[in-house]
Design a protein that fits this description.
The protein is an all-alpha fold and 156 residues long. It contains four helices and two strands, in the order ααββαα.
């Protein structure tokens, strides 16, 4: 299949008329003539050539009135072209996949943030428990110190 959905016309085209030789002027200031018969162009190109206005200046642009009219007749063809439809489907599925990937990335970032916060909370709790354990140890030393003075009258 050719690229960009190019279709060849399957109907046989009529044989081109024999070329007619005319002298051409190729100077810088020469005027362009309609020579579509000489070039053996198809009827659409001849019509396009007839509707095209040309100027002899080298700085002027060609203005083609019939080009948009000719293209409008085949405007709906590209909407039903299988390669165009397949390309649209692939772009749509890629956009969907990208959106889902963005959501998954956001969820993963949130999960990482929550995990880090959980670890910080555990560290804080461990520090608080360590402080309580130190305070308890210090208090038990004081009680142990006070308990040494007991039993000064001998063992019982």
């Amino acid at each position: 299949m050719p690229l960009f959905g190019h279709r060849k016309d399957t109907s046989p085209s009529p044989p081109p008329p024999p070329p007619v030789e005319e002298p051409k002027s190729h100077g810088l200031f020469s005027r362009h003539r309609n020579t579509s018969v000489e070039r053996n162009e198809p009827p659409v190109a001849q019509q396009q050539q007839a509707n095209t206005s040309r100027s002899g200046s080298i700085f002027s642009r060609r203005s083609d009135v019939s080009n948009t009219q000719l293209n409008n007749n085949n405007n709906n063809d590209h909407y039903h072209d299988p390669s165009i439809l397949a390309a649209r489907d692939r772009v749509h599925s890629a956009e969907t996949a990208e959106s889902e990937a963005d959501k998954a990335l956001d969820m993963a970032r949130r999960a990482v943030k929550e995990a880090r916060q959980h670890v910080k909370n555990l560290e804080r709790e461990a520090e608080m428990e360590a402080r309580r354990a130190k305070a308890k140890q210090a208090e038990s030393r004081l009680i142990s110190k006070d308990a040494r003075s007991l039993g000064r009258y001998g063992p019982m």
